[in-house]
Design goal:
With 421 residues, the protein is mainly beta. The protein has helices spanning 110-115, 127-131, 160-163, 292-296, 407-411; strands at residues 6-18, 26-31, 39-43, 47-54, 63-65, 86-92, 98-103, 120-125, 142-150, 164-165, 168-169, 173-176, 179-180, 184-188, 190-197, 204-208, 214-219, 222-230, 232-235, 240-246, 256-259, 265-275, 299-308, 311-314, 326-328, 334-341, 350-354, 360-364, 379-382, 387-392, 398-404, 415-420. Strand 10 and strand 11 form a beta hairpin. The structure holds CU-O-CU linkage and copper (II) ion (2 copies). One copper (II) ion is lined by residues 312, 350, 404, 406, 409, 414.
Amino acid sequence: SNNEKEVVYTVRAQKGETEIFDGIKTKTYGYNGAFLGPVLRLSKGDTVKIRLINELDEVTTFHWHGLEVPGKVDGGPHTVIKPEEEEPIEFKVTQEASTLWFHPHPKGNTAEQVYNGLAGLIYIEDDNSKSLGLPNEYGENDIPLIFQDKTFDDEKQLNYSAAMNEDGTIGDTLLINGTLNPKLTVKKEKVRLRLLNGSNARNYTFKLNTGDSFVQVATDGGFLNKPVTLKELSLTPSERAEIIVDFSQLNTEKGLALINENESILLPFEVTDQRGEDSNLPGEMNNFSITEEEMNLPVTKKVEFFGMMDKVTINGKKFDAERIDFTQKQGVTEVWEIYNKPDAMGGMIHPVHIHGTQFKIISRNGEAPPENERGWKDSISLKPEERVKIAIQFKDKGVYMIHCHILEHEDNGMMAQIKVE
Ligand code: C2O
Ligand code: CU
Ligand code: CU
């Protein structure tokens, strides 16, 4: 069984300097360091105590994206920590193994703080994840990859306003785990890549340059029931996926890389001659299911995302911290319909995220979701005119956010509040 232990962390939001470009110090933000953050390792059943410390000159919050925790420790815009202040929080890990992340969420200033470097990962393990035999040597054959795009000024400083486009920041420089021009050296073996689209506004479609397939094993909030073979995989901001690439099976003669939709190289691989472990992929990984009852529930909430630039709304309104937009009973499953309403220009993709829960996608435009979305999700990409039904319940009480994870849309008010009581 999962042994219940107590895990204690201190997480400091701080300023620092990072050598992103050779010999140049770039001013950055980070958690427990100058840039990005540590991996917080949790296990299902743990009681977690975290000291949150704000060493910035501005207010911040500490939001645990994907964690099923009470609203008061979720780190939304209400739970502000002032400069020089600290706050202890405590919660229990009640959900299954998954790769989550954490980032700030202060009202109107989330995007720039994330852009400056505030983002870290959370790994949850459980009995199942330990028994599956998936690659799990951190940094060897189990690699986190945080994709973020930035724009730097002539002094090689992060320049938020220079990266600003109509619908959010689109940087001209890709960083992976905060590194410029990264290269990943791997053995001839199966390697697990934990992909996080940590960008403010950019979407990625991951492919191998050789056209070979890979398998997806996990969604935002847990393992898929079976590995899903894919040739490409799209992630909108805040979505995660764990994929396995089998480097023992790939032809490396012409070079190997993860590429984007437009064929641009995201991450080149160097495959050494060393043979690694010869592990088999598990056939069964999880018992995720949508019950008949959930399928047949009537829609009780309709949530309409509309607009572009700073004219973005949910159900026709902009965020108001004083207004509760939806209520739901703790532990009760409801079906929500989320709709991306196009405008005269056609509209755009909105990645819709809900705090404090992992939900199930019942349908996309009336049809079953693709195989690699039949697992726990906390963020879902909606194209213009798409209508998605989700089954959703909250294990805890409190006030939670639903918002577009284009962080500039979120800061511009494409966010609403759900009170769970
Ligand atoms: Cu990634 Cu409101 O959060
Ligand atoms: Cu979140
Ligand atoms: Cu949006």
